[in-house]
Amino acid sequence: MPTPSDRTRLPLSNYRKKRDFHVTPEPAPSAGEASEDAHPSLFVVQKHWASRLHYDFRLELDGVLLSWAVPKGPSYDPKEKRMAIHVENHPVDYASFEGAIPPKQYGSGTVLVWDRGTWEPVGDPHEGMKAGKLVFRLHGEKLAGLWELVRIAKPEDRQDQWMLFKKRDEWAIPLSEYDVIKALPDSVVAKPLGLAEERESRSARPSRDADSEIDLSAAASAPLPAKLEPQLATLASSLPTGGDWIIEAKLDGYRLLARVDKGRVRLFTSGGHDWTKKLAGLAAEVERLPVSSAWLDGEIVVLKDGIPDFAALQDAIDGASSGNIVFFLFDLVYLEDKDLRKVPLSARRARLEKLLEHAGERIRFCEDYEAPPAQVFQAASDLGLEGLMFKRRDAPYVSGRSQTWLKAKCQLRQEFVICGFTSRGGTAGEIGSLLLGYYVGGRLHDAGSVGAGWDARTARDLWTRLTPLEMESAPFDVAAGKPRRWSRRAAGSEHWVQPLLVAEVEFAEWTTDGLVRQASFKGLRTDKSASSVVREATKTLAPSHLPQVKVTHPDRIIDPTTGVTKLDLARYYISVAQWMLPHLKDRPLAMLRAPVGIAEELFFQKHAEKTGMPGLKAHDRNLWPGHPPLLTVDTLDALLSASQMNVVEFHTWNSTVRRLDEPDRVIFDLDPGEGVKWRQVQEAALLVHTLLLELGLKAWLKTSGGKGLHIVVPLTPRLDYAAVKSFSRSFVRHLAKTIPERFSATSGASNRIGRVYVDYLRNGIGQTTVAAFSARARPGMGVSMPVSWEQLSALKSGAQWTVQTAREHLSFQTQDPWADYWSNKQTLASALKRLK
């Protein structure tokens, strides 16, 4: 066996010996060994479910991929030292390999590309490999920053063992706050199955051709709001790696909202200032749109060679060239007595585009780009655009800062308060630099300075604007932090001013002490008040585009048999939210809570009294007269809020709040009695499915997360609960009468010994069934998992997947077994006749 130092001298021989390339789809090495090319070195992390799940960490060097098997995967926490077994080198072509390695082949199982990008060694990588200490920087879609591999193997060890860990830098984050393995489990190449946003093909999404096909059903009748606070985006440090986002160009202009009331238009800045008179010509253009009442959201720009130019916009606003201003509209918030804020963004934009079909050149629809985010971002950078906007396709319109709108800038850029200036050396009446600040909790902090980005005319104009505002001392609040650079300047070189004006500044980065570096002035912001200027918080998308989990008592053990904690459960619900929420949305529910763990007292909560769960929606008491208000979990925030309050299980009604009395599904719960083996449960499910097909009804299957299975029959909501429950009772009694040795229609343990009880009682009004993807408050914490009928024979139990394994299972699936469930339309009319 080669020693660790010999491995790179046998580039791919071990790789060849272990594989039969007539059988495995893995790439065979080329006839000649690859040579090192002059391109950035690749890195890839492949998630490999073989005999057990592990992560293959690969770095390109000398034309091959140096490879380590990392059982637990990487972590951003420097305290987490992860075992990494140095294995055979792989060909560079392997970096893009995804697929199934057949049984009886080396490494048989499924492989996906979990992360990819480029890497830079710190120092000589050949010396690092020889010495057993390799330090490097990663530039991936999930992993970034400085990392280290250190050999810990002894010469006599059978395996070449190393440790992989994160170096301490700006990317480091404790595991208790962020676990990249759990937060981002999916492939960066192929989309995982059945994301809520992907259940409809793009062709099935709201049409831009026919108004009747644009789903505005979530709109609410409401009077035109007098004011509207705009939705704001959160700054992202890199690009989303999952989810379904609408990608727009980040326009270099001023945010503007148009209020149309009885055909008359008023224009407002994001701060609420009325600019109608200032932009009278633009207001007249908006008035030509075929609408009598609306709120329109967009950005005004001036284009130079097709690219927004911020300085040109300022000149246009302040001068006589306002006719050059173009209003790009990207959202429709209110339309003709309807509040659209709860309508998904995709539908709002489709309706907006239709509204603008015949608008003039100055009123334009802000187009989106259907291409990979990295590709669009590169194009934006090449064109000199400010950046990109990423907006969740299914998101409602929410005033204020949100996580469903993100902005990724080609360079960092934000507003700063002008706190002072210096004069240009040798030139009277011109500024040399602007001294900047921003507010934190009402206190003004120093942000450094900017000394570039203006010509002589702008330098004189700034001098003229600022000198009347001079004051004797710096406006910074000393209590907000220790004095920084400005206090060390030569006495008298700075001129302090009242903090009233706002500058837009582009810069390379923040220093560790909170100052801007390599800054360039872009212009004054007359639409922003100085008091509103804060340092923009960056939402880190690499490592995470998902929210970090903050829960109280994160280490509380929920399941003593597995050690699953409250934090583990919250992270699980975040990871499956996109799949789970369609099964929860608008359905009244009962929540099983476990305040001190599932081994202690549990209780159900069905109504709104004393929920203590912000985000859950409490519905009108009149929806179900004689009962307390019903609750629904419609959003990720609501799901997390419930998890924070120790909710383990989510059980839903068979109808939605919109048609509460008309169920849109029938559920048959197959519950095995004492002495029933799992094989009998599988056979029972097949028999139920066969009978349903004979009645002309399609059905879908899911595990219960416990001992049994659930068979779900979707319905077009027409019949009331009494009729649907009557059908389910007749169906189950027919089963028990026809095959009494296998089925029982009567509850009670003594009635189901050796048989499967098919519970039809869940089909009554107010009855609930555990939702798909919900955890179960049972030892092991199984999960109710949707599966296909073809998967039934391979199932080993109703709790085959748990909170600890369910999300990993989903990341390897490429087809949603319930993809057609959502569009299926069927009724019980024919089945009722045939059962009589």
From TrEMBL:
Could you state a single Gene Ontology molecular function term?
Answer: ATP binding
Annotated GO biological process: DNA recombination; DNA repair
Note down the stretches annotated as region Disordered.
1-37
For activity, the cofactor(s) needed are: Mn(2+)
Q: Which InterPro entries match?
A: DNA_ligase_ATP-dep_C, DNA_ligase_ATP-dep_cent, LigD_ligase_dom, LigD_PE_domain, LigD_pol_dom, NA-bd_OB-fold, NHEJ_ligase_prk, NHEJ_LigD
Q: Which Pfam families match?
A: DNA_ligase_A_C (PF04679), DNA_ligase_A_M (PF01068), LigD_N (PF13298), LigD_Prim-Pol (PF21686)
Q: Enumerate the SUPFAM superfamilies for this protein.
A: DNA ligase/mRNA capping enzyme, catalytic domain, Nucleic acid-binding proteins
Q: Locate the ATP-dependent DNA ligase family profile domain: which residues? A: 318-440
Protein name according to UniProt: DNA ligase (ATP)
Q: Which organism is it from?
A: Paraburkholderia panacisoli
